[in-house]
Each structure stands twice: as structure tokens, then as C-alpha cells.
Fold each of these.
Amino acid sequence: MWYEWSATALESVAEESALIVNPIIFAEISASFLKLEDLEKVLPLDLYKREPLPYNAAFLAGRAFVKYKRRGGSKTSPMPDFYIGAHAEVANLRVLTRDPRRFRMYFPKVELITP
């Protein structure tokens, strides 16, 4: 169910803008692959632009994580969504997600693509 929604949403976004993958997103997706070559076939460079995580985004992710912990968050290390949300905010990017709750709470300026 989610695969179909994600694939359709990605196709739609690709028609109007570049698809961007940072190292955090790349790492999350890589969990489904045994070989780097197979992952690179799914995320070809001609379709997915690879961007580094900017240092100011890493700082913003850390600050959002502090707020999360102060609000009772239970995770002990910054979660990938904080890095992804911070990168999107700093670079003025949209985020495709099926779970917008944390993005909306900690990165309200980020435009979300949701089901």
C-alpha cells in the first residue's frame, strides 16, 4: 500500500522538481539492499540528486532533538527524521513522508508531501 503511494508521489514530484537524497535518506533506503550496486540502480544519479547534509542543518537537527527530549521524547540519539527535516528547512526543500507528525512539530516551515 505505502509503496504504491510513495512511487506515485515521487513520479509526480519528479515532473516538477529534482528529487534529492542526502546521506541519511540513502542510509535508510540501503537497509533493504545487500549490495551498493543494487541500491544505486534504484536511485540513479540522473534521477536523484545527492546532496550532503549541511552543517547548519545538523545544528538545527540537534536543537530540534533537544526540544524533543524536553517534551518527553524517549530516543537517546538524534533520529534520522530530525536530520532530514533540518536539511529540508535549511535548503528550502519539500519532504515526502507518510508520517508527518514529527516534521510538523519540529519543522513547521517545511512543506510536506503526505498521503
Amino acid sequence: MGEKKIKPTQRELAILEVLWRLGPSTVRQVHEALLQIEDAKKVGYTTTLKFMQLMHEKGFLNREMEGVSHVYTPTISEEDNVKQVLGKIVDTTFKGSTMKLVMQLLGNRKTSRRELNEIRSFLDNLEENSDDE
């Protein structure tokens, strides 16, 4: 129960983002996708391979043999990753208050009328489906 979640590093997150976008992929496919990202141009294939092997050992990736190549898939969905990261931010930075997080975001950013309307609609749906009395 007290299992501590390990969070991905920035480079590991970049690999996960590629896999979330591409789906199951080989190291070569992930590496080529990373080369499209400006920062990744100086990373060699063997570095990507090593990161993905370590991510498999850490439990971030599953891997299966297909022909002569390993095909990797993330063990966590993008949505679950966002929930974990935001949950941690709410707990540590905003002392558990989702309201403080939302107020901070809306107060510090230019939010378009369209976005505000979508937020209102989302809040209306939440309220309608709420179990609170």
C-alpha cells in the first residue's frame, strides 16, 4: 500500500510521449521520432536504446519480441500520467486544493472566450453528475 511511485525523468517522458503518439514501437521508430524534436538531435541511437531498456527495468515500458526487434509499449496511459502529475502538484503546491490550482491557472494566463465557455460547460456537466447533495 505504501508503494512509492517512481516518476519519469524529462528524457523518459519524451520517450513516453512518442510512444503515446505512435503506439507500440521499436527503439529505431522512437529514436527517429525523437530526432524530430529539436533537443534530441544530439542523442544517439544507443542512448535511446539504453534509456528504453532502463525504462523497461523501472516498469515504465513493456516489451515484446517481434521478429528480431523488441516492440515497446508504455505501462501507463498519458491520461493516468497527467492525473498523477497534477495530483502531486495539487498536494504539494496547493495543499490539496484543486480550486487554488484552477484559480492560479486562470489568473495567470490569457484565457479565450471559447476556452472559458468550454470550462463553464465542463463545470456544468460536473455539477449535474455530482453525487453531492
Amino acid sequence: MTETPNLLLKQVKPVGDGFDGEKTTNIRIKDGVIAEISSSLEPRDEEEVFDAKGAYVSGGWMDMHVHFREPGYEHKETIETGCRSAMFGGFTEVACMPNTKPAIHTRDVVEFIKNKSNYQLVDVHPIGCVTKERAGKSIAEMSDMKQGGAVAFSDDGDPVYNSQVMRVALEYSSMLGMPIINHEEDLDLSRPGHMHEGVVSTRLGLEGTPGIAEEIMIARDIMLAEFTGGHVHVAHISTRNAVDLVRRAKAKGLNVTTEVCTHHFDLTDEEIDRRHFDTHVKMHPPLRTQDDVDAMVEGLKDGTIDVICTDHAPHSVEEKEVEFIYAPNGIIGLDTAWSICVNRLLKSGEMELEQILEKLIAKPREILNLEIPYIKKGNKANLTLFNTDEEWTYHPGEVRSKSKNSPYIGETLTGRAIALYNKGRFAENRLKN
């Protein structure tokens, strides 16, 4: 990946922002800015040329929920390797969660992450802690972190458990115009659950986490959002009742938004049995039932669920290669997110291409108050080039993350990102054969 200020993209199909996705055209980028859009453009001496051969192009995708582990857990992932995975998955921007060591609870840690990512093609936006050291007791320095570049606040990995602390957090964050992203979990109900509590957990003899542990905390936060006027963003929603709670909150006009991870609208708790306790299907919230999976798709379709994310959570081989009950929760997801969207949402006919892209482009940036990268003359070029029909196998050698904890390794997938442009740089994804 090198500096590519001047580039001609040939034979691309722009989608979104008024484009119908059928017209093949060319896009000229000059000094990192979209200069011309026309099917009659010809190459110039000073510019590089990339023939997309009819691939789609959209504004760059964003994942607003990733864990890049740096600082403190670089054996799992670094900002550099996390950005490498994001690029392969088609994401030009990500927002990283604060459960690092030290936690992202002061401005200096926010600025450390911003500085470390300056030379990456991917824009990395830190999410600051709600509470100091994620301890849940006292509010972190929100205003200072915002000035340093934080885009939201969360204690993700743990909920903001104390209701008074959550109330104060919402009051402060609303003055800053920023959301609180809460990990919705009633810890007294959920622990020590290792999977979803239900028929499968009973059959397997594993202690489970009931869906109500998520739903009770969501209900509390919706009430606090109504009381304070603050913006609650429900992280990684996973149950039908949880979606219904958010749906009703939106109907009342409350400032409540939510996201769903790709694995939560693709896999069910039956995978734990089918895969014989493979720790690569252990995550939190846990994989739920088929009815919950169906509810995620319904919520995406009707707009209740605003955003598609991954909760990209790298863990080392040593951490995951243990008995199921001792393994940490989480899987990597940036590499495979688009293929899951294609298979479960597009090819199934559940959603149109433009509907899916809205949840990867505009919606996460609206929630985080970031500029939306429309494909228009004069706009800064922030682009993802992709297809929806290419079959490829996710070999271990293709994993771009530093970690390998994915249930999709070895599977044949459909649809992938082929190239990206952002920050004056162009990168093409090349799969090994």
C-alpha cells in the first residue's frame, strides 16, 4: 500500500446515494478527492489505473464495534494488524472499544491510538470509557477524551451496572452530543453462563446465560434515556425480546439506537453441539436460538436495528485451545462480515443491496457524528470496491488478523471486498491461490 493521490477507477458500478447500481462508469481521483465521474474518462500520465471490471463501488464501510487490543494485549491484536484485517474485509473506518490496558479512559490513551493509526489506510476512532478504568464507579473525563478524538463512550466487556452512574453518564454525554454504548447484561442473572440458556444448554449440561439478562438491562437503559434525554446505543443485540424493546423505544421517539453482529444473524446455539464444543463459537452475548436469529433479520429489515457490526474480538491460540468453559468469549469478524451479509441477507432475498450498505456506511457514522463518504464530485475519496458473487475459501493463510479465532475458517464464502481507497491511499485485496 503506497500513496496514490491520483487514480482512475475504471468500470465501476456506484451504489447508494442516488446510483442505481447498474450503470458502469469511471471515477477519477485527484489529490485524494473525487474529481470526475464519467464513463468517457481516459487515463492520464500522472495517475494510476485500476480496472474494476464491473465491480460495485460504495462509500467506505465502517465497523463501529471492534477490539484492536492495543495497548496492553498486543499478543492478540495490534492497531496495525487490526487495520490489516479491516482492509481485507472492506472497512475504511472502525471504532475501537476501550477494554485495553490501560483502558481508554483518559485523553492520552485516546491520542495514543489516534497517533498509532495515522499512517494506516483505515481511520481508527477510539471509544472512550464511561467510567475510570472501566470500574463502574466514577465518570471518566468525557469532555477531555472528546477533544482528543473519542467518538463515543462505553465500558464494553462489562455493563455500566450502577443505574445512578449510568444516569450521570447519559447527562454528561448528552451535553457533548455523544452516545453511551452499553454492554447490556445483568451480571447477577448471566454469570457464570457459557452459552445461551435453553434447550441446547440443558442437553449439553452447560450453565447458560438467559436472554432476559440482556433484556432487563436494555429496558433499564431505555428508561434512563427517556428520563435524561441522552443517547443510548445498545451494543451487540441478540434476542427477539431485546429487538422488541428497542422497536417500542423508537416508536416513542426516544434516542435509542442499536447494532447487530454478523454472527448473531447467521449462527445459532446449535453450533456448539454440532461443532463439539468448538471454542470458536463461544462469544458474548452468546449465540441464541433460530427464533432470535430470525428476529435480527426482521429488525434489520424494518429499521429497528441501525447498524451491522462485527464485535471483532481477537484471542490467541493458547487462550482458545482450552476446554469450552475456560475459553474467553469472542471471535474475529472483520475478514468475513461482507460474505455473511451477502449470504444471509442479500442472496436470501431478505434485503436489497442498498439497505445493507446503509447499515455499513451511513448509519454508524450518523450515530458517531462522523462525515458520511458520499460518492460525489468534490468529496474526499473514501471508497470500498466489492462484489457479491465471487466464491472464495477462507483459508488459515488468508486470515489478516493476528489471531485465528473464527468459526468460518475453511469455509467457502461468497462475495468479498476487492479494493479500498482512503486517506490518499489505494489498496487491492489479493487472495492467494
